[in-house]
Amino acid sequence: MAGYVQNAPIILASRSPRRYALLRQAGLAFSVIPSSVENHVTPPSEPPVYARVLAEKKAQWVSGSHPESWVIGADTIVVKNGAILEKPESPSAAKAMLRMLSGTTHAVYTGYALSHDASGSLFSDTVLTHVTFKPLTESEIAWYASTDEPYDKAGGYAIQGLGTLLVKHIQGSYTCVVGLPVCEIMDFFIKRKIIEMQRRGSGLKGGQ
After folding, report:
1. Domains of the chain, with CATH numbers?
2. What tens digit of pLDDT does each residue of 109-130 get?
3. Do 20 and 40 contact (CB within 8 A), yes or no?
4. I need a labelling partner for 12 at 20 to 30 A (CA). Which of 52, 59, 137, 157 fits?
5. Whole-prediction pTM
6. What is the DSSP pairing of strand 70-80 with strand 83-85?
7. Are 2 and 195 in contact (CB under 8 A)?
8. Catalytic residue list contains 75
9. Residue 110: helix, strand or coil by DSSP?
10. Which one from 75, 125, 148, 152 is the annotated catalytic residue?
11. Nearest-CA neighbor of 113 among 101, 102, 127?
């Protein structure tokens, strides 16, 4: 059976069901230990730095208690006209965000960090994707704000859910917008032999 040989345990330091689903879809075996780090612990800075530093803090918070595991931390922020759009707390706030994004392009930054405390290893980076919304009607805005989707999402929408109908175009990584840049994380693990590809039926690792 095709899959991976994992040479170290992997932990996702997030309670996000979207990040969980992305890693499961990629075929990883991992456990979930949410970080208790909150966004306000890091003073706001340039968006890519802000997202990356938060991801580092989340990964390191868990890694300290699980030194033999590779811990994945992540943080996603949505930026429009230099302003960071947090999760809307009310229907009126969600509607205001949707009006701001309607018919325009905004930036989505996902910072990610991979921490292994036993070896003192920490790698982090930020992935940027540009997302363009179609022009939204007031009825579309009111309808979407009436769903459950906007209220636990940065920027007030879910590209992988009902919010897909809002999005006309993306430039960059789709999984970055969902909340975890899977390609970059898997590439890191493969290059460092934390995971190794296994061919279907052969029992051989990739490259043999």
Report:
1. 3-198 (3.90.950.10)
2. 999 999 999 999 999 999 999 9
3. no
4. 157
5. 0.90
6. antiparallel
7. no
8. yes
9. strand
10. 75
11. 127
